[in-house]
């Protein structure tokens, strides 16, 4: 555990933790605000984690701006910034541990980005150990990641609280993401269709079966400049793809697209 945090915990302080890869936007700041409301001290970490990138160009071009990030953290009154080096996070060398998350790691993001969730879980596991929080805050934009972190906490016996925070959106509905700054003006104008189609799916699900809704939305995407990687409707708890609706269960639609070279994801509870 980081010595400063250990000292604060000895003094009875409650620690909230927000892990990030920097290029902070209002979505990140909403996680920090949620932590500030529930804890005495909030720790934000910034570390662009190489092992969770399956695409070297995505890692190389991932926006990095520590100076601006620090200004934003100061302005919002975040108490502690943990800005580790690669050696701090990976003292034994830059490689992921292997986890068994019961299958959810192999679908959607896991299927499209091999090794991604082992990379995420490895870094989150390490960050949880050094920050030893009372609560950790993650955005629902990465809903599958949130489910993976929940499983990680079971596997590693972390006893603290995990909080999912609803997706923060631009005025036109585009989910906030650090990658949005890399969109060309043309693709930035096209990208709000992701949320529009999620809302349409929610609407259609009132009286159509999931397969029909999926087909309609896939067709809608094929008429745009966005290249659809997947559109899936899944059981919100298990994240298993659903073909039909069962009473008492909730369902969520998940999307991944390429807007040119930039990959964007989003999701929405639809029923
Ligand atoms: O969501 C992110 O920004 C990252 O996946 C995380 C949780 C900070 C791990 O690198």
Mean pLDDT, nearest integer? 97
Poorly predicted parts: none
- The tally of helices reads 11
- Helicity, as a percent range: 25-40%
What small molecules does this complex bind?
A: pantoate
What is the number of strand segments?
8
Q: Give the biggest sheet.
A: 5 strands, parallel
Order of helices and strands: HEHEHHEHHHEHEHHHEEE
Rg over CA atoms: 19 Å
Instruction: Enumerate the strands of the largest sheet in spatial order, edge to edge or round the barrel.
Output: 3-2-1-4-5
Termini separation comes to: 42 Å
Strand content: 15-25%
Helix-strand category: alpha/beta
Shape field: globular
Polypeptide structure, described:
With 271 residues, this protein is α/β, with parallel strands linked by helices. The protein is built from 11 helices and 8 strands. The chain has helices at residues 3-10, 26-38, 56-61, 66-76, 86-89, 109-112, 116-131, 143-155, 185-190, 193-204, 210-222; strands spanning 15-20, 41-46, 80-82, 135-139, 161-165, 227-235, 251-259, 262-269. The strands form 2 sheets. The chain has a 5-stranded parallel sheet, with helices on both faces. A 3-stranded antiparallel sheet has the order 6-7-8. Strand 7 and strand 8 form a beta hairpin. Helix 7 (116-131) packs across helix 8 (143-155) and helix 10 packs antiparallel against helix 11. The model has no long low-confidence stretch (mean pLDDT 97). The chain binds pantoate (PAF).
